[in-house]
Amino acid sequence: MTKKNAIYAQSGGVTAVINASASGVISACRKYSDAIGVVYAAQNGILGVLNEELIDTTTESEANIKKLQQTPGGAFGSCRYKLKSLEDNRYEYERLIQVFKAYDIGYFFYNGGNDSADTCLKVSQIANELGYPIKAIHIPKTIDNDLVITDNCPGFGSVAKYVATSIMEAGIDIKSMALTSTKVFVLEVMGRNAGWIAAACGLASVDNNKPPHIILFPEIIFDEEKFLTKVNETVKNYGFCVIAVSEGIKKANAQSIVVNQNGIDDFGHVQLGGVAPVICSIINNKLGYKYHWAVADYLQRSARHIASKTDLEQAYLVGYCGVEYAIQGYNAVMPAIKRISNTPYRWEIECVDLNLIANHEKFMPRDFITDDGYHITNKCRQYLEPLIFGEDYPEYKNGLPDYVELNNIKVVKKLAPFNFGR
Fold it and tell me: pLDDT, tens digit, for every residue of 91-116?
């Protein structure tokens, strides 16, 4: 086997454990040094490849690469950038191949979610069309848990653990004050089209009187009158009401309940957020209850201090196995998580064709949501619970987590600057 170099890049929204996947990729490449030479990390995803902003990971110690496993964020930077079709922008693809050739790249590991799967597939297809041999492997991650085929997505288990813990603790707080103060608390979590994160909040509700009392899913049309009735009944029965809401909930006309939304990314996604105050305003105007709201936002995806051990192990292994698949000659595939059993929870990694993943989206099954549309079923709970099992706390220093910051030494560029929008 002729030794070739590799490029690893992170893409899309980062997670508490995406660096564990980076650690898995780099560690595996170092193990298989007879086939893989230098591992370059592209700074800021695919943009780093186009701009020839490449980091030489051989300068990083084994200790630092291992410590990536306990560090949140994207160690090499991420991006949201859509590669157009070859017909629309052949220049970009020719540039990618130019960079691959300049650095003798034979392996491309792209760590991301749905849109990143699409990018990785395109790189594989175009490299083949342009006659450049490369093994392009998609390393899965997304807090949204909406990649198909794979049982779950690395990054989701830690978010699930964070939001379930947060809403449990907030619920205890609200209950303490409900008699003379706040009656309603709303936690807004991420989730554009799929309600997996909102559903995870339901893990905190071990019985009917424990918060969250209501969960609002993107998959269920928001009915204001029905919702207000449910809130009022909950307050009268329990003295307070805790609500988990996905940022992507919609009205009957498929429109978001938030009127003013700004910003559209390269993939055509509208920037979401701001649902919690709208929900609270509806409750206050119609029912008069005092309320508080919070938005988990970036906190939910960066909370490495309370990450799921299961999630961490899976994130590392999809990175490691992705390299093994490449060594075995696979191309345009993704290491997916296959659940073998719930009790005991057992899983393994399997190789899946990327054509089956890219541009598809996994939604909450209807039988994971209660008949009234406001909570999770036992079937959903059985699916979710194993994903938050275990703790793997980071090392602490001076009372705070001791996260690693890599040297990120860039190589000296060999090519002319890339001209975007040519």
Answer: 898 999 999 999 999 999 999 998 89
Rounded distance, CA 226 to CA 27, Å? 53
Torsions phi, psi of 56, nearest 5? -85, 105
Q: Specify whether the CB–CB gap between 201 and 167 falls below 8 A.
A: yes
Distance CA 299, CA 260 (A): 23
Q: Which two tokens stand for residue 189?
A: 């979590």
Name the architecture of domain 4-142+307-358+391-401. 3-Layer(aba) Sandwich (3.40)
Task: Summarize pLDDT for 121-152 with one digit per residue, the tens.
Answer: 999 999 998 899 999 999 999 999 999 999 99
- What are the residue boundaries of the structural domains of the chain, listed by start? 4-142+307-358+391-401, 156-304
Q: Which two tokens mark 82?
A: 């859509």
Lookup: tokens for 202: 């339901």
Read off the pTM. 0.94
116 contacts 79 by C-beta, under 8 angstroms: no
Candidates 1.10.730.10, 3.30.70.370, 3.30.470.20, 3.40.50.460; correct CATH number of 156-304?
Answer: 3.40.50.460
Please identify every residue annotated as catalytic.
144
